[in-house]
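User: Here's a chain of 271 residues. Predict its fold as tokens.
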Amino acid sequence: MQEQELQGRLSQGLEALARADFPEAIELLEAIAVEDSGNAEVWRQLGVCYLETRRPDLAIEALGRSLKCDSQDSNTHYILGNAYGSSGQLERAAACYRRALEIDPEHAKAEEFLMRTESLLESREHYRNGLRLLYSINPGVEDLNQALRELVQSAAIFDGSPARDNLLECARRLRARKSEWQVPFEITPELRHWARACGRGSACVEFENWIGGREAYEEALGYRVADAFVHHALGFCFVELGELDSAVRAWLRVLELDPKYDFARFGRVTR
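Assistant: Prediction complete.
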């Protein structure tokens, strides 16, 4: 294929790609690649076409060939990161984004997608740790406590985390191990309303009246805003009501107030 003809076909392929006519673009670009296998741009644009047509494996192969021809193109590393991400290979995706940033520290998209990918990796690690503890053989109270912490962190980092599907199971296992909470401070006249609201909440939970429990603990929170016990009790009510976002927020607040909080303390408030 002559150089002039090659450039003409390449222009046609890029025009087809620009108007999202991916079948035509792929046909034109693949024909060029056969004749000019050392053309980095052709392989890169083929990678884009394959990625747009949901064929990440082909995209990875094409983009890898592009990088063999030109290893210093930051955009190719970035697009390859997207291809790895689409195929679920998050560690490789992150490595590609890092390489793109090494070549071009101002590559905004690579920086944005690296942050997203690292968040997904962190969320996945928390999720896997949570599952391992939750479904271990005869998990103890501390195992279940740590499982809930891990699942909550996973769900907080990534809204689409599958950890949300395990929160209810973990909460119910902890509730089955519940213990009473010895109030570590004096119930002053100002806190009697708080104590009564907590008592009503506990009674509601005992009879699985989750709406009543939520209302009671929300009232108690009005008297003690920075109260890990009430936030944690609210989390249990929210998760039973299917309000997972609210449950995650409540349990995150617990961990902010007390990172080692014992989520099995779910009984009546005692003195």
